[in-house]
Amino acid sequence: MNQDFEQYHDIIEQLKPMINEPEFGQVLTQVAGSVPKQKRFLLKMELKRLARPCTRLIDLRGYVDGKCKLYEYENQQHFLDDIAIEVFERQVRSFGEYSVGVYEAVMNTENNYRVMHKKSQQASQTPQPEEDNTPASQQYLAPIMPFGEFAQRSEERMNYSMSVELFTETNKSMLATTVDVSLSGLKLKISKEYRFKSGERLAVQFRGLEHEYMLENRQGVQYVIESVERNAQDQRLHLKRLFDTLLPSFDRFLERFIHGNKRRYKVNLDNTFDAIHKKTYEQYYIPNFTSIPVYIESTDDQFVPRYALANDCNRQDIFYWNNEISDLKLGYLFSDARIKKCLSYPKGSQETYLYVFHHIKNEKVYFYSASHEELAANAGLRDLYLSYGSRKISWRVYKLQIQEVEPKQSHRPLSIADSISESVKRQNQPPTPRLMSRLRHLSHIALLTNVTDDANTLCYQKLPLVRAKLPSLKVFGHPRNRVPENIQVFRFKYANQRRETRFMLRTAIELKVEDMVIEGHTEDISIQGIKLELKSFFHKSTDSLVEINFPQLQKVTRKYDLSNLSYTVRHISNERNVLHLNVVNDESSTTTKAFFDELIKNNRSKLKAYRDEEDIPGIGEALRNIYANNVPNVAFFIRKEGAKYLPDATATWSAQTRLTNLLSFQAPPGEFNLLPLFEGFNGPLDFIQHTLSHIKPHQRPMMSELFVAFDPKKESTSEAIKSCFIEQFANDDQRRQFISQAIEQGQFIALKIFIARTGRPDIDRLQSEINYVGVYAVHRAKQLEEKLWNVNGVGDILDITDLVMSRYQFDALTIHDNRERQQYQAHKSIEIEQLLNSDSP
Fold first, then answer.
1. I want to staple 634 with a disulfide (CB 3.0 to 4.6 A). Which of 269, 652, 663, 806 is the partner?
2. Where, if anywhere, are coiled coils annotated (predicted)?
3. What angle, rounded to 10 degrees, do the helices at 82-95 and 778-789 form?
4. Minimal CA–CA distance to 614: which of 493, 437, 446, 496?
5. Do β-strands 578-583 and 721-725 pair in parallel, antiparallel, or remain unpaired?
6. In Å, what is the CA distance from 517 to each residue of 509, 539, 571?
């Protein structure tokens, strides 16, 4: 970009998406209204230049501080690093194609050696500006945007301001101004000196329309107050029309008036923009959470697990529960007694921890599990169970959270009215009776989250192990002759779903790399690739070439040689023992693809796949909608500003909990403060920054454990909140000391933080609403789309305080007292809110 236009950088960025739109001239005048007319003309010419198509190839090898790779776009081959690819794709979205502006933006990324050299020269010649004095407590504020919470309108509203006269039931008169108008409702602005309450009836005379239409009924049009919003300047009344007195001629006039003027005065789109905003965050979150939502039916006072919702990030934890013949045994965890025990706790605390491992004997898998309460009831076996189980590679620790749901939450209509189009009307239809009959008994979601890590595993391994007592652990084993409830797994389909179906198959393999042979087994197979778990650590990197032998499968075929088949490593788990492999296109690939193609075709009825072809159409989407309306933890979203990653938004359906109290401290209503994730007592915390800089989209989320000392008696967040990631402590003694001091001064809170890079949102599912707002506010729609594409990270915050305190041998009374402090703070907070919201006498 020409240096003359640097001062107009923000204006140019706003106008880029509009260059090829018919409204470009009008939007230019609005956005650049303060720019002199001559300069505005030059801005227009500059934007036209930037929008010209470009055919130049880009090769950044040796020009940027990053690893470049081949990147193809519309049959052109470029060599770009990750930062350049991100800039390229963002700019292409703005311009609509590969243009001069895209080329220049990619050639001027922040890690370009030429750009860095130029900046260093300018920095040495220019006095350093004053530091940003924005308090840290303000930098990390993010709005709370609960998924699924948006208004669905049955008709269009038009933004229109006119004077109206209101009459109360006691015939008291007052003047107001309309904000928006529809056939069955009004939004009014009125002086704050009047007092209104929901449910109050009002008669409305439309004084601003009297020159066009005179009401026949002198009593006015009857409305009821739905809600009242008060602020420092005035108050807003939301009115719903009462049709106890019919006014057909007025209805016809108002309908014609809105239809004839809606393009001039604009339809009110606030609810639709709000819906697009929240749905896009939801699209980022649902494919990236690692928890397993299990849907529980309640009939005759018995709780039975029925369904589970899968995505690419929780597949690994679901597959863990496959036995040697790939039968899913996840139902072992959800006994009626366990569920009832959790439900006996107060709402908001209906949770427990599960400790799990499996044992393989004679090629058969035996599952063991124990809840926190079950281990407490068998105190003599607790340490033995934890010590022995944690030594096994199959050791897992889960947090189990249970909360109520309603089947009707499966319906998610659009935010726009049926009258817009037949397509919209079709999408607004409620679920079919057949589908609802499958959901009608659902009463709860049991959310299962894998929180296993080295810290808790090493702690349990230090407990005494008396091998002579191991047979007594059979009490925690699940007998193979008692079949658990069958849980059907469904996956909600997204744009980033896999190109082919993967089938669950557990079979032995031998992986050869260099001079090593590592044994393991497959978890799933497809024609193009396999996922496998190794018995030992894989020391090579992604893109490594390996050879695979299939000794068990070789026994069932003489037609194919299943030895030394070539694969490429595409993904390695954090533990470096779970690999995703793709077939290499060499001489052996013909054999590999032909064998697995034949295996799958001949055994389709036996092999279990994710249920992409649903027996009841729409059940995957219905389950996803129910979960989105009941997310118990705090989801958060990260945007990038320059080189920094900052909170963009949060989402949760939890009310007053230990976690929400922490994040609400000194935050304005409707916002959370994510300061504990970014600022520690020894300086900035770089877990989020470092992770997002190194992982790629569609990679399984990274996780870490955060310790927080919270003293709400302190006035400032920097004094009240002291946080530190677990890796920053030298040993367990320091961790225990931190916990003890936190309890002495206030409250200790431990959080599990998950973070992943976002992929592309599934815009197809938002297309009807995007098209609708594009008709009336294309510029605003483009701005929202660009803002949402700037979301770089998505994560989850999970409270694991009780687990951590138990791990470090704090007794049950101390854990209980630490939890009770949250309830006291919540009670105080509620009392204060009630006091502030009470009406003046």
1. 652
2. none
3. 170
4. 493
5. unpaired
6. 10, 12, 19
Query: What percent of the chain shows pLDDT beyond 90?
Result: 46
3-state secondary structure of 345: coil
Report d(CA 510, CA 516) in Å as an integer. Answer: 10
* pTM score of the predicted model: 0.72
Q: How far is CA 700 from the centre of its chain?
A: 13
Which DSSP string do the residues of 250-307 spell out, in sequence order? HHHHHHHHHHHHHHHH-B--HHHHHHHHHHHHHHHHGGG---EEEEEEEETTEEEEEE
- What is the per-residue pLDDT for 136? 59
Q: What is the pLDDT of residue 256?
A: 86
Q: Under a CB-based contact definition with an 8 Å cutoff, are residues 287 and 311 in contact?
A: yes
Q: What is the pLDDT of residue 241?
A: 92
- What are the pLDDT digits (tens) for 649-699? 999 987 778 999 999 998 998 899 999 999 987 788 989 999 998 888 778
Give backbone dihedrals phi and psi of 426, rounded to 5 degrees, phi first: -65, -40
- Three-state DSSP class for residue 796: strand
Q: Residue 232 and residue 229: Cα distance in Å, rounded?
A: 10
d(CA 298, CA 292): 19
Measure the CA–CA gap between 681 and 703, rounded to whole angstroms: 20
Strand partners, 59: 79
Q: What is the CA radius of gyration of the chain?
A: 30
d(CA 145, CA 628): 12
Where does residue 90 fall: left (phi above 0), alpha (psi -120 to 50 degrees), or beta otherwise?
alpha
How many C-beta atoms lie closer than 10 Å to residue 211's C-beta?
Answer: 7
- Distance, CA of 814 to CA of 385 (rounded, Å): 23
Place of tokens 């729409």: 618
Q: Distances in Å between the alpha carbon of 697 and those of 57, 89, 287, 488, 756?
A: 25, 14, 11, 28, 7
Helix, strand or coil, per DSSP, at residue 161: coil
pLDDT tens track for 357-372: 999 998 899 999 999 9
What is the CA angle 563-567-572, rounded to 5? 125
- Separation CA 442–CA 405 (nearest Å): 7
Q: How far is CA 663 from the centre of its chain?
A: 17
Residues 6+ apart with CB under 8 A from 390: 456, 457, 460, 461
- CA-CA distance, 596 to 581, in Å (whole number)? 14
Distance CA 734, CA 708 (A): 14
The C-alpha atoms of residue 187 and residue 181 are separated, in whole angstroms, by 7
- Check residue 250 and give left, alpha or beta (phi > 0: left; psi -120 to 50: alpha): alpha
Enumerate domains of the chain plus CATH numbers. Answer: 3-123 (no CATH), 158-267 (2.40.10.220), 304-491 (no CATH), 503-609 (2.40.10.220), 631-837 (no CATH)
